[in-house]
Amino acid sequence: MKITGLKLYPIAIADPPLRSSYGLHAPYAIRTIVEIDTDEGIRGIAETYGGEGPMGLLEASREQIIGMDVFQRTGLWLDYERQAAAESSGDRSQTWFVPGENPMDRHTRTFAAIEIACLDAIGKALNKPACDLLGGRARSEVAFSAYLFYKHAGGGGIDGDAREDEYGEGLSPEAMVRQAKQMIATYGFDEIKLKGGVLDPDVEIETIRELRREFGPRIPLRIDPNCAWSVDTSVMVGESLVEELSNGGYLEDPAPGMEGMAEVRKRLLAQGIDTPLASNVAVTHFRHIPEAFRLDAVQIVLSDPHYWGGLRAQQALDHFCGVLGMGVSMHSNNHLGVSLMAMTHAAAACPHLTFACDTHYPWQTQRDEVVVGGRIAFHNGRVRIPDKPGLGVDLDYDQLARLGERYAKLPYRKRDDEAEMRKHVDPDWRRVLPRW
Ligand code: GKR
Ligand code: MG
Question: Could you tell me if the CB of 382 is within 6 A of ligand 1?
Answer without folding.
Answer: no
